[in-house]
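A.,

Following up on our hallway conversation. C-alpha cells first:
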C-alpha cells in the first residue's frame, strides 16, 4: 500500500468492504486493488457506459402509466449507478411508473464509507441523502428492500455473491421452473475488472444473466475482456463494442437475441428416487390478472398494508370488513410495539425477523415524522390538538435482559452483529438513564423502533384514491368462477354478492372459515392488554420497555400495558385476573416502577385474538389447492427428495396474508410488499428462499414428508 492511500478502519465490520482513499479522496478496494469508479469522473462514466449504452433515457420516456422497468446490477459499491439511474428516471419516466433496481453486492460498503463516497457527488442531491438514510443498519446476507419516492423507486440490495444472489430471483431452483417472477430489462455488469475479479466473472454469471433476462433485455459493461464477450454471446446476447470511457480502449454492450428456455418438464422423470432438484411446489404457473382489480377481506394492519401496496401499483382495491370501522380485532389496541425476534444464528425465522424489522422501521419513518410535526405544531400553538388518536412515537424500544437466557441471547447478538446501528447493548445504569426509569437490568436498545396506534396507521394507509372501504360486510362464502371469484356477503341486514378477479384474505384466523381454506393450520391465541392511568413515575418513561410483556411511554396520560398470551382460551372478555397477570409480569421485571401502580391505575383494557402458525412465520402467497397438493406430491411420503417436476396447484387469483402472530407491526409491511410484488409480477423483495418459507402450502408438504397426511 502506498503512503498516499488512507484506509478506513473497518476492523469491526469483517463482512464489509475494506476501502482505501487516494490523495483526491476517491475510494478504491484494498482487496481488489481497483477503483470503485473512474478517476476522471465517475458520474460521467456511469452515464456513458450504463445509462447511454442501455438507451435508458429513451426507454424510460416511452413507458406508459403504471408500467415498470427493471435494472439488474452486479456490484452495488457506492450506489452511484443506482443514484444516477434514479435521477434519470425522475427526469424522463412517467410519474406513476415504477423503477426496480436490483443490485447484488458481496462486500457492502459500511455506512460511513457510503456516506463519504457520496459526498463526492453534490449534484446527486436529495437522492444520495435518502439512500444513506435508508442504507440497512445491519448489512446481513440476503435481501434488503429500500423504497423511495412513495414506492416509485424500489431498490433491492442483495448481499451475496453475484451468482448466488441472482439465483434467488428465480421462482424455483428446479431447472424446469427457474423463471424469474419478473425479468430484468437492462443489465449493468459492473464489478471490478475480470483480471482482478475472475471469481465473479465466471461462466455461471452469464448463465444467470441469460435466465433472468426479460425479452429485449440489454446490457452494458466497461469490461471488454474476451471471456465477457464470449460468455454473453454464448448466452443469447448480441455483442457490440464501443469506445471505452476516458482512456479506456473499449467497452461492450448488446441486446438479447435468444430468450432463455427452461429445460422441458418432460426431461424429468416423475419417481420416488433422490432428485438433484427441489420439488417446485411453491411455484405457480397461474397467469397474472391484467384487470388490476382486487377485493381484500379484512381491514386490520395486514389488509390495510396490502391495500396500500396494491393501490400504489395502480390496482383498484375494495377493502371489506365485517366490523363497523378499521382495525377492530387483533389490530385494535391503542399502542402496539414494533419489535422482532432476533437470533445470532442464521435461521429462517431470525433472518425473516431481521429483514422485516429493518424494512418496517424504514416504512414507518414518514408516519412517525408526520406525528412529530403535528405534535410540534400543537405544542407551539400553531395548530390546535386534534381529537384524533396519535399515530405513535419513534421513541426507541428497550428489550430488557430479564433473565439469564435473554442475557445470553443479547450477548450473542452483540457478538455476532458488531458495530451496527440497529441495536446497542446497555447496562442497567445506561438503560435507566435512557428510559427515565430505574432498571435493574440492562438490555438491547433499538433506537429507530417505537410504538404505533394501529387504527390511526390503517387510516393513513388506506388514504388513497384507488382504495374503497366497505364496513359491516362479512364475507360468508368464496366460490371460484371460470374467471375470478364470487364473494357472498352478509351485513347491514342484507345479503349481497360481489365478483372479483383477484381476492386477498387478510382476515387472520377467520381466513380458514371457508370451505377451500379449512386445512390451513392457523390457531387463535387470546391476549389481553390493560389500560393504565400513568403514575408520576411511569410518566417519566421515555422509551418502550419490553421483556416478558411491554410498556410504552404514556400518551394522554395513558399506557397500554401488554399482554397476556393464552392459546387455550378464545374468549374476548376482559378479566380482572388478566389485568393482574399483566401487572405481575411488570412487577417481576421492573419492581420499582410497578410499586408506583395499583389496581386503581387500571382503567380498562381489551382482549383480542392473535393468529398464529406452527412455525411462527406468517402465510403469504397464493392459496394452494389442498386435494391437488396431496395428489401431486404423494410421493413425498416415500422419499422427501422425490423427483416431482410439478408446479404447485393454486386457486387462480386467491392469495393470503395472515398469521402475523404477536408481531404484526413488524411483519405486515414487508409481507404486503412481497404479496403485491407477486400479484403484480414484480421482482421479489425477499428472494426465493424466504418466499418459499412464507408460502401457505408449506405445512402440507412437511406433513406429507412426515407421513402425517
Ligand atoms: C393483546 C395483543 C397485543 C398485541 N401486541 C402487539 C404488539 O405490541 N406489537 C405487534 O406487532 N403485534 C402485537 N399483537 C399482534 C398484532 O396485533 C397482530 O399480529 C395484528 O393485529 C394482525 O393483524 P391482521 O390484520 O392480520 O389481523 P386483524 O387485525 O385481526 O384483522 C382481521 C380483520 O378481518 C376481519 N374479518 C374477519 N373475518 C372476516 C370476514 N369473513 N369478512 C369480513 N371481514 C372479516 C376482522 O373484522 C378484522 O378486522 C398483539 C395482539 C394482541 C391480541
Ligand atoms: C467497481 S465497484 C462497483 C461500483 C458501483 N456499481 C457503484 O455504482 O459505485 C465493483 C463492486 O463489485 C463488488 N463485487 C466484487 N465481487 C463480487 C461478487 N463476486 N459478487 C457481488 N459483488 C461483487 C465489489 O464489492 C464492488 O462493490
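Then the amino acids I'd put at each of the 709 positions:
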Amino acid at each position: 500500500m502506498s503512503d498516499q492511500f488512507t484506509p478506513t478502519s473497518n476492523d469491526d465490520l469483517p463482512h464489509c468492504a475494506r476501502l482505501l482513499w487516494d490523495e483526491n479522496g476517491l475510494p478504491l478496494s484494498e482487496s481488489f486493488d481497483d477503483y470503485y469508479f473512474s478517476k476522471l469522473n465517475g458520474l460521467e462514466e456511469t452515464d456513458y457506459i450504463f445509462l447511454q449504452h442501455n438507451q435508458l433515457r429513451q426507454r424510460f420516456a416511452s413507458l406508459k402509466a403504471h408500467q415498470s422497468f427493471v435494472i439488474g446490477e452486479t456490484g452495488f459499491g457506492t450506489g452511484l449507478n443506482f443514484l444516477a439511474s434514479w435521477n434519470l428516471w425522475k427526469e424522463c419516466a412517467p410519474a406513476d411508473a415504477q423503477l426496480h433496481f436490483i443490485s447484488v453486492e458481496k462486500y457492502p460498503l459500511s455506512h460511513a464509507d457510503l456516506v463519504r463516497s457520496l459526498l463526492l457527488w453534490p449534484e446527486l442531491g436529495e437522492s444520495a441523502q435518502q439512500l444513506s438514510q435508508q442504507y440497512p443498519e445491519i448489512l446481513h446476507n440476503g435481501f434488503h428492500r429500500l423504497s423511495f419516492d412513495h414506492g416509485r423507486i424500489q431498490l433491492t440490495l442483495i448481499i451475496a455473491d453475484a451468482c448466488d444472489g441472482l439465483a434467488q430471483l428465480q421462482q424455483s431452483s428446479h431447472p424446469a421452473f427457474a423463471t424469474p417472477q419478473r425479468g430484468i430489462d437492462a443489465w449493468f455488469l459492473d464489478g471490478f475488472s475480470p483480471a482482478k475479479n475472475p471469481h465473479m466473472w465466471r461462466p455461471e454469471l452469464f448463465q444467470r444473466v441469460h435466465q433472468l433476462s426479460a425479452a429485449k433485455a440489454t446490457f452494458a459493461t466497461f469490461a471488454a475482456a474476451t471471456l465477457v464477450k464470449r460468455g454473453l454471446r454464448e448466452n443469447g446476447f448480441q455483442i457490440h463494442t464501443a469506445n471505452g470511457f476516458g482512456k479506456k480502449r473499449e467497452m461492450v454492450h448488446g441486446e438479447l437475441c435468444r430468450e432463455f428456455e427452461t429445460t422441458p418438464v418432460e426431461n424429468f422423470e416423475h419417481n420416488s428416487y433422490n432428485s438433484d432438484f427441489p420439488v417446485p411446489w411453491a411455484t405457480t404457473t397461474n397467469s397474472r390478472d391484467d384487470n388490476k382489480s382486487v377485493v381484500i377481506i379484512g381491514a386490520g394492519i395486514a389488509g390495510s398494508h396490502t391495500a396500500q401496496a396494491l393501490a400504489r401499483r395502480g390496482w383498484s382495491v375494495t377493502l371489506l370488513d365485517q366490523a363497523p370501522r378499521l382495525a377492530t380485532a387483533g389490530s385494535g389496541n391503542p399502542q402496539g410495539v414494533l419489535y422482532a425476534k432476533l437470533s445470532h444464528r442464521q435461521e429462517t425465522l431470525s433472518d425473516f425477523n431481521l429483514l422485516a424489522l429493518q424494512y418496517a422501521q424504514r416504512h414507518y419513518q414518514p408516519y412517525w415524522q408526520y406525528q412529530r410535526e403535528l405534535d410540534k405544531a400543537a405544542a407551539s400553538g400553531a395548530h390546535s390538538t386534534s381529537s384524533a388518536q396519535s399515530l405513535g412515537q419513534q421513541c426507541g424500544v428497550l428489550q430488557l435482559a430479564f433473565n439469564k437466557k435473554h442475557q445470553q441471547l443479547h450477548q450473542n447478538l452483540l457478538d455476532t452483529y458488531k458495530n451496527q446501528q440497529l441495536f446497542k447493548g446497555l447496562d442497567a445504569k445506561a438503560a435507566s438513564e435512557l428510559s427515565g426509569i430505574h432498571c435493574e437490568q440492562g438490555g438491547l436498545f433499538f433506537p429507530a423502533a417505537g410504538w404505533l396506534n394501529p387504527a390511526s396507521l390503517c387510516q393513513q394507509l388506506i388514504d388513497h384514491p384507488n382504495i374503497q372501504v366497505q364496513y359491516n360486510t362479512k364475507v360468508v362464502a368464496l366460490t371460484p368462477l371460470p374467471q375470478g371469484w364470487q364473494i357472498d356477503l352478509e351485513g347491514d341486514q342484507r345479503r349481497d354478492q360481489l365478483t372479483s378477479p383477484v381476492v386477498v384474505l387478510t382476515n387472520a384466523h377467520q381466513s380458514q372459515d371457508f370451505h377451500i381454506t379449512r386445512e390451513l393450520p392457523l390457531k387463535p391465541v387470546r391476549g389481553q392488554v390493560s389500560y393504565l392511568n400513568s403514575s408520576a413515575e411511569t410518566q417519566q418513561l421515555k422509551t418502550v420497555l419490553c421483556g416478558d410483556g411491554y410498556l410504552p411511554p404514556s400518551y394522554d396520560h395513558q399506557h397500554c400495558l401488554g399482554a397476556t398470551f393464552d392459546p387455550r382460551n378464545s374468549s374476548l372478555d376482559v378479566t380482572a385476573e388478566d389485568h393482574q397477570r399483566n401487572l405481575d409480569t411488570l412487577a417481576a421485571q421492573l419492581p420499582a416502577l410497578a410499586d408506583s401502580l395499583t389496581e386503581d391505575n387500571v382503567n380498562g383494557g381489551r382482549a383480542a385474538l392473535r393468529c398464529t402458525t406452527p412455525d411462527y412465520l406468517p402465510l403469504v402467497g397464493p392459496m394452494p389447492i389442498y386435494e391437488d397438493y396431496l395428489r401431486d406430491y404423494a410421493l413425498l411420503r416415500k422419499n422427501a427428495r422425490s423427483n416431482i417436476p410439478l408446479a404447485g396447484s393454486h386457486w387462480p387469483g386467491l392469495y393470503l396474508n395472515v398469521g402475523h402472530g404477536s408481531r404484526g407491526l413488524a411483519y405486515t409491511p414487508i409481507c404486503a410488499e412481497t404479496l403485491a410484488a407477486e400479484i403484480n409480477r414484480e421482482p421479489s423483495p425477499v428472494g426465493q428462499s424466504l418466499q418459499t418459507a412464507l408460502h401457505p402450502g408449506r405445512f402440507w408438504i412437511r406433513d406429507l414428508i412426515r407421513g402425517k397426511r
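The domain at 6-259 is CATH 3.40.50.150 (Rossmann fold). Curious whether your intuition agrees with the design.

B.
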